[in-house]
Amino acid sequence: MKTTNQKSFKQRFSRSFRQNIFAYTLLLPSFIFLTLFTFYPTIKSIQLSFYSGPMTRLQFSGLDQYKDVFTDEIFRKVLWNNIIFMIGTVPASLFLAMYLAIWLNKRMKGSALLRTSFFYPTVIPLIAVANIWLFIYTPQYGLLDRFLDVFGGSGPNWLGDPNTVMIAMIIMIIWKDAGFFMIFYLAGLQNLPRDVYEAATIEGAKPFQMFRNITFPLLMPTTLFVLIVAITNSFKNVDHLYIMTKGGPDNASNLLLYYIYEVAFTNWDLGKAAVLTVILIVILLSVTAFNYLYLDRKIHY
Amino acid sequence: MSRYINYSIMIILGLVFFAPLLWIFITSFSPPGEVINGSNPFWVSNPTFQNYIDAWNAAPFLRYYLNTFIIVFGVLIVQLFTITLAAYAFARLDFKGKNVLFILFLLQLMIQPEILLFPNYQVMSQLGLVDTKLAVMLPYWASAFGVFLLRQTFKQVPYELDEASKMDGSKWYQTLRHVYIPAAKPTYVAFALVSVSTHWSNFMWPLIITDSVTNRPLTVGMALFAQSYETGAQWGMVTAGTMMVIFPLLIAFFIFQKQFVSSFMHSGIK
To answer: What is the pLDDT of residues A79-91, one digit of tens each?
Structure first.
């Protein structure tokens, strides 16, 4: 009796052992690249953020570089810009996306054409979008100023003025991203239960009431998902700065990732670039953690 | 009543959204004089191909196209391999540390390679790969996004099919090839479209890691080209260059519009 038991245990053990090895082998190719280009650079940045000096003679400097960064005027400005940029782009493009999706979902004539018109900016590279909008915002000859000219007005130097450059960027990003988010809302709307709407119609609910009490709450999971994507985008996508402003004028349009690029590859300040990278990673991780730990729990209905 | 107001708003918005593309398209066919002085920005009286010819001759666009093609498909082919294996393991195998490994994979969704511009540059210089096409591709060869997408699909394949195939004496890779991969075809299409359009558009990373005509993709080439001709008189040429970058994407988009939309939709469903 005992021997058979042992045998089966042994068999089971060797089978699960082989199964483990098999699974690890399948994961290995992905894991190698994840280690080399996600885990290792992340850890390396954290380590490097505590060391200063040139690459060959690094010296431990504790939190000094963090102190330097947090007292750096430009860093504060850039971080603030990024927050403004996020507040400017995220709610507006989500709202617009939801609005467009709700009306396109009604399948009126020409809705396919409209959907194309809202969605195509998604497939255009951000760097090409920047090229197009650079011309749109050009004083006097640009499309925007020509349009204003019809009404006898004339705009400021949109990209050259610290007061208008951010709003100009925000409008461009809303144009680029709204159609992308709209697609997710269209998908979400298809999954909504029809009978609820029928019941609401019989009860005599007004369209706006239906939106507020049914559509909006039921779309919450979609909104959450899109929210995370949109917030991540507002920290990740900085290509347009390279073409349009280089972060200027006077850092008025600079964003965190572009600032990292400048610090690392123009000033070659490696320690500072490492600190900034760590800060960016922490921001993005907390956005996701907030989503999973807090928001995700609140919206189960 | 509110119905008509909303429809009007939708139509106006549709026109506003479409205007930039139309304008850039028309400008790319406008002779230099008309770009600045034309009375109607949406009209060109003497359309010309000259801008495209000038742009084509001013920068090695053919080379850039080729580089982009190599990079985009180099990324995609390896990704298809790595995500298929990993997705199969996560979907159908039980093994020690599965949850921990899954979370480690999840990390890449938050800390995307785009964020790690600076440390990844250092990794590449340690590997001696700065200014190579390989360096542009490498950070994207693992795709957590692809693994999740595919794992979800593999999980929906009925176990019976898997077992039947094994009963017939198929090896695991034969089962994968004849059962799982055909079942996941729409997911592969979705992933491929998202991957190709993302990497076609990628800019900051190749800007940093490449430094020569032989390795530069189209986006970087176009940006450098545009920067050297940004004065008003050269608008036609720069818009022609821009059109050359976005044209293949737009053509692909209009042909595969249904798949594109459903792919991006698909990509959002967790």
So the answer is: 999 999 999 999 9
C-alpha closest to that of A71 among A287, A250, A275, A261? A275
- Using CB atoms and an 8 Å cut-off, which of residues 164-223 of chain A contact chain B? 175, 179-180, 183-184, 186-187, 207, 222
Looking at the structure of chain A, the number of domains it has is: 2
Overall fold of domain B52-266: MetI-like fold (1.10.3720)
Q: Domain of A74?
A: 68-298
Q: Which residues of A touch B258 (CB under 8 A)?
A: none
List per-block mean pLDDT (blocks of 10 residues) for chain A, which spans 301 residues. Answer: 56 77 94 95 92 76 85 93 96 94 83 88 92 88 81 81 92 94 87 82 81 86 87 92 88 94 89 93 89 65 44
Q: Does residue A202 sit within a domain?
A: yes
Distance of residue A175 Cα from the nearest chain B Cα, in angstroms? 7
What gap in Å lies between CA A31 and CA A50, rounded to an integer? 27
Domain end (from A43, A60, A77): A60
User: What ipTM, to 2 d.p.?
Assistant: 0.88
Alpha carbon of A21: minimum distance to chain B alpha carbons (Å): 8
Show me where the domains of chain B are located.
Answer: 1-48, 52-266
What confidence tens digit (pLDDT) does each residue in B142-154 have?
999 899 889 988 9
The alpha-carbon radius of gyration of chain A (Å, integer) is 26
**Which residues of A fall within a CB distance of 8 Å from B237?**
none
Tokens 């600032």 label which residue? A259
Q: Do B85 and A26 touch (CB under 8 A)?
A: yes
Claim to verify: residue A249 and residue A125 sit in the same structural domain: yes
